[in-house]
Amino acid sequence: MYRSSKLQTRQSIPYGDGAPSTEPNNGMRNRSLFDQQNEEVTSALGQKISALKSLTIDIGNEVRSQNRMLGEMDSELDTSSGFLGNAMSRLKKLQRANGGSITWKLLGFAFLVFIVIVLIIKFK
Questions:
Q1: For residue 86, how far is the Cα from the chain centroid?
Q2: Is residue 23 within 8 Å of 29, Cβ to Cβ?
Q3: Domain span at residue 24?
Q4: Phi/psi of residue 22, each to 5°?
Q5: How far apart are CA 14 and CA 41, in angstroms?
Q6: What's the number of CA atoms in the CB half-sphere (13 Å) around residue 104?
Q7: Per-residue confidence (pLDDT) for residue 11, from 0 to 100
Q8: Residues of the chain whose pLDDT is less than 50?
């Protein structure tokens, strides 16, 4: 009785393609198959990791490039704000020298230009 149940157990163990085997080196064949599958999966994983590494390097390069451009824009804006500050201070000096009449002249000119633009757009 013991012997027949042991024989049935050996015959019902699948290997590789799922067929039962009674070969004595069945374990070696399974191990070899698992090792081969493990190598394939490891290779695929290595390729994916390489792709991710390349993508990460590209993202890092792009971030450095964007930071450099932002730094350049910041320095250009600082220069522009300096020019604008100088122009405003000269305008204030001019306003004080003329007693404020220049402000009314500038506002009147801006209003006149606005009216002319509205009329041009309206009659086109």
A1: 40
A2: yes
A3: 2-122
A4: -120, 15
A5: 22
A6: 4
A7: 45
A8: 1-15
Nearest 5°: phi and psi at 21? -140, 150
Q: Which two tokens stand for residue 38?
A: 């493990």
What tokens were used for 109? 């000119």
Q: What is the CA radius of gyration of the chain?
A: 42
Residue 50: predicted pLDDT: 95
Token pair for residue 85? 């500050």
The span from the CA of 36 to the CA of 16, in Å, is: 11
Q: Determine the 3-state secondary structure of 17 from DSSP.
A: coil
Coil vs helix vs strand at 25: coil
> Minimal CA–CA distance to 33: which of 14, 49, 47?
14
What's the total number of domains in the chain? Answer: 1
Residue 95 makes CB contacts below 8 A (sequence gap 6+) with: 102, 103
| Six-digit token string for 3 | 């012997």
**Global confidence as pTM:** 0.44
- What Cα–Cα distance (Å) separates residue 42 from each residue in 17, 39, 49, 52? 22, 5, 10, 15
Residue at 94: amino acid letter: L
